[in-house]
Amino acid sequence: MRVAELSMAVVMAIFSLYLMWKSTELPIGWIPAEGPGGGAFPFWLSLGMLLCCLWMIGRWVTRTSPPSRSTEPFMTPQTLKLFLLVAGSLAAMIGLIHIIGVYGAVPLFLIFYIRFLGRHSWAIAGSLAVSTPIAAFLFFEIALKKTLPKGYTEPLFYPLYDFFY
Amino acid sequence: MNKFTSKILSAAVALSVGLGFTAAVVKEAAAWEPKKPVEFVIMAGKGGGADRLARFIQGIIEKNGLASKPFVPINKGGGSGAEALRYLKDRAGDPHVIMATLNSYYTTPLRNPDIGVDIAEFTPITRLAEDTFQLWVTTDSGITTVDEYVAAVKAAGPGNWKMGGTGKGQEDSLVTAMLEKKFDIKVTYVPYKGGGTVAKELIGKHIDSTVNNPSEQAGFWEAGKSRPLASFTPKGKLQGRFGDIPTFEELGYGSDMVYYMQRSVIAPAGIGEDVQAYYVGVFEKVYKSAEWQEYLTNKGLIPGWLTGSALTEYFLTEREAHRQMLQAAGEID
Amino acid sequence: MEVLGLLINGFVIAFEPLNLALIVAGVVVGLFIGAMPGLGSVNGVAILLPMTFLVPPTSAVIFLAAIYYGAMYGGAISSIMLGIPGASTAVATTFDGRPLALKGQADKALVAAAAASFVGGSISVVLFTLFALPLAGVALAFGPPETFALMVLAFATFIGLGGDDIPKTLFSILIGLVFSTVGLDIISGEPRLIFGGLTGFYHGINFLVLAIGIYGIGEMLWTIEISQGEVLMSKATVSFRRILSNLRDLKGNIKTMIMGSFLGYFVGILPAAGATPGSLMAYGVAKTMSKNPETYGKGNIDGVVAPEAANNAASTGSMLPMLTLGIPGSPTTAILLGGMVIWGLEPGPLVFTDHPDFVWGLIASLYAANLFALLINIGFIPAFIWVLKMPFTILAPIIFVLCVVGGYVPTQSMHDVWLMLIFGVVGYFMRKLDYPMAPMVLAIVLGPLAEPAMRQSLIGSQGDVMIFFERPISGTIMVIALFLIVLPLIKNMRKRRKRNAANGPN
Question: How much is the mean pLDDT over chain B?
Fold first, then answer.
């Protein structure tokens, strides 16, 4: 926990510095007869972020905040494994959407999660993997006319569009 | 349950594939038709003038069944349309995306060269109309003529006269710069998010004058709250109730006090002539519809059907004009 | 009582069979759209706008108003059940709605939200009927300085919302504000903070991306860690009798509902504000007024009631500037306004006299929509509870899919989906380290309203800061806001002094 607390504060401090640097692309000062420039808001607020991070680091050194005193591990090996599986499969699904589209990636994700993480039966996993994309298609594409990304599977949907419109 | 669903699904897929196949065979000889919903990109945010217009056009298409697949509006207003322009550039060759444009079509690529967009590369579809600008004040101000206006601005002292408008470097600020130069006056330009807000701020007397589009001030004008002093159009171009507003030219301030907001539709580069012809056909029907013609008269727009290379030429001339205006305003080098 | 006659006439219009059918259909559609994370009333109204060409304008606007109301009710559903605010107006509802659901009292929270929405809607319709025209003047008097003062007040009312860790709470507010400046600086017209030159940042960081990331993905990761992937989402049960007894229990919350309704309505009529600041302020005020503020955020029913009453009242309120000034008070009314233009109705000061059928038909239908939304919503509660009883390992992946799709749909860009995942993961880590997340989400909602208002004011005053205090309305609001900021500090000091005094003799 102690390590995590410090790392987060340091990472955020560096991020604040980056934001400050990025803000200077626009004027950060007070323009006479006009008020603050375009970069002023983000610049001075990021400076505030930086100060908050330094404050947190200070409290880490003096051990005055609860996480900096905690000796519990930030993540147990069990939690870490679960986190990596869930977040990883989520990232994989989003990545796959670029290639095989929502209607390809979502069933794969559902089967992986429900069958292999949740250990439910194939019947449940399979029926959800089929019905969720169909419901999504009818709701978003037909009812709301919001097209979802399809990647390379796009041409497969042309007949469906011809059918519904 | 599972088996049952999959059976239904496979039946549905087989059916629709079959249908699609026959349809494709029938249509092979015919002209190009969209195969899926067409993305109708709007280079402005939700609720603004450009957005309302695009959704109105979509409504006309839908109501009269002018297209076989729906036109789906998508707002990509980020960075004064920079996001939309870049999106269209990246979709080169895609026949299922078109974009409704306004004057940020010229100014945004000029002001942000790093987005790497050259509007000459896009495929022109059509120009549907040109929106107009008038100089507005409140009725309570007692100002009735341009001369009184200039006198009032000068009497207020430099910087004390507040002119409201949309973002800096956009249409309203360019029109304001024209005014300042012509009459040798200096106003404080206050940027707001949209033309509707600008109109309301004038009536609430938070600003002293605006250069709104007619549609934005019409309600207040009718209620006797605001007054147009002069129109930034050539003589005799505006029809309907807005035609009675004197133009700067008629008032003797020269014919250079003219500025339009173009309302056009364009497509990405490299979409093929059959696709271009299809969209021109759809919008020709929109243009000729009773709804569109009525809208033009009621909202003070100037009809302006223009297609093909003539439209490209128009875009390039206007871009050049805007380059000069932006340079004069000190917005670009 | 000319108004009353007009309103009765309006009710006759609203209860025509076609219009009544449209109200019911609109409420049901709206309820579902609103309950989807990522889809709010804006989407519902925008998407269905073209459909309304098929019916006369009055029926069309009645249909859209019903969707609007349905979606406002629906927004509370995803806030309470999933902890994901479907729209910015429902953020405040998650603060206490989610803890209640986790305690197995989802049905109680849902009933409270529906009842509060009904009270808020009813009070605001009455206010609308009686004071529509005079209040239009108030809306006009609100310029940039007043808007800025109101935003300061909104920040002040929820200053106590954060955790106990001062630097982390401050950090959370600040990073939210900085994120809210990404995109285009409208004052100078220049792009700002375009990280890595990615075009996706040109449209700024959408509130929904942050909210779905943090509350959707982040919370789910957190729940998975706590439960190690096993337990149920909620132990809720439901029966008709329970719903009735829940309704009866709400008697004690009526004061909060009325407070939320009035506050929401008056904030709602201000052109720039809309329902979001209204609901946040109602939450803040309810907490400040409460005898035991420490129970807020842990499942206090008043914490659900106040924002829900306020956001429904505000959505009626935001119809006022739309109708009388042609200025939308919220993105949804902006689309409705576009609809009016399409139907050939000129919004503006004359609409009340030129099209009385339209205006009063709309108002009466708001009322009818409100009633039907309540009934339909309560009727659906058992179904929602049934969903919550599914095993978590089935519910979780479906919620993840909803989050991904919900993150994509508003802007239709994959950039936002990736951003959402990053916010979710980082938010999860920060949450483990006691960083409060609510202030960040609030800041990203209010930041884009506050910053331009402040700079517009200063341009107008030639850089003179006194403009915020010299004008009567903004001055008054500013003083109240500063008082609210200073008050907790004084309270704190007094507490400390007391403690010192108590410790003194030792």
Answer: 86
> What's the burial of C415, exposed, middle or buried (CB within 10 Å: 0-12/13-18/19+)?
middle
For residue C296, pLDDT over 90 is answered with: no
pLDDT digits (tens, 9 = 90+) for C144-201: 999 899 888 888 876 666 556 788 888 998 999 999 999 888 787 788 888 888 888 8
Residue carrying the six token digits 């709250």:
B225
pLDDT tens-digit readout, B195-215:
878 888 898 899 999 999 888
Phi, psi torsion values for C66, nearest 5 degrees: -65, -40
Going from N- to C-terminal start, the domains of chain C cover 2-492
Among the partner-chain residues C39, C47, C177, the one whose CB lies closest to the CB of A145 is C47
DSSP C360-398: HHHHHHHHHHHHHHHHHHHHHHHHHHHHHTS-HHHHHHH
Pair B332, B111: CB distance under 8 Å: yes
Shortest Cα–Cα distance, C401 to chain A (Å): 7
Task: Answer yes or no: is pLDDT of C241 > 90.
Answer: no
Tokens coding C110: 């849902």
> Which of 3.40.50.150, 3.40.190.10, 3.40.50.1820, 1.10.3290.10 would CATH assign to domain B138-244?
3.40.190.10
**Residue A3 vs residues A58, A70, A72: alpha-carbon distances, Å:** 14, 10, 11
> CA nearest B86 in C: which residue?
C199
Q: Which helix (H) or strand (E) holds B190?
A: strand B188-191
Residue identified by tokens 């980056």 is A18
ipTM value: 0.94
Spatial contact of B26 and C316, defined as CB atoms under 8 Å apart: no
Q: Which residues of B touch C183 (CB under 8 A)?
A: 78-79
Count the Cβ atoms, other than its own, within 10 Å of residue C8.
13
State the average pLDDT for chain C.
83
Residue where the block lists tokens 């009455």: C126
* Helical packing angle, B49-63 and C331-342, nearest 10°: 50
Averaged pLDDT for residues C82-111: 85
Q: Tell me the longest C-alpha to C-alpha distance in chain C.
A: 81
Contacts of C46 in chain B (CB under 8 A): 46, 55, 73
CATH for B34-131+261-328, options being 3.90.1150.180, 3.30.420.10, 3.40.190.150, 3.30.230.10: 3.40.190.150
Exposed, middle or buried, A165 (CB in 10 Å: 0-12/13-18/19+)?
Answer: middle
**Ranges of chain A with pLDDT below 50:** none
Question: At CB < 8 Å, which residues of chain B contact A?
Answer: 1-2, 5-6, 9, 15-21, 23, 35-37, 39, 68-70, 72, 159
- Percent residues over pLDDT 90 in chain C: 16
Which residues in C lie closer than 8 A to residue A38 (C-beta atoms)? 185, 187-188, 190, 192
Q: Which chain B residues contact residue C42 at CB under 8 A? A: 46
DSSP string over C271-282: TTT-HHHHHHHH
Residue B215 sits at the chain C interface (C-beta within 8 Å): yes
Estimate to the nearest angstrom the gap between the alpha carbon of C147 and the chain centroid: 17
Residues A66-89: pLDDT tens digits?
A: 887 887 888 888 889 989 999 999
What is the C-alpha separation between A46 and A16, in angstroms, rounded? 5
**CA nearest C384: which of C94, C110, C36?**
C110
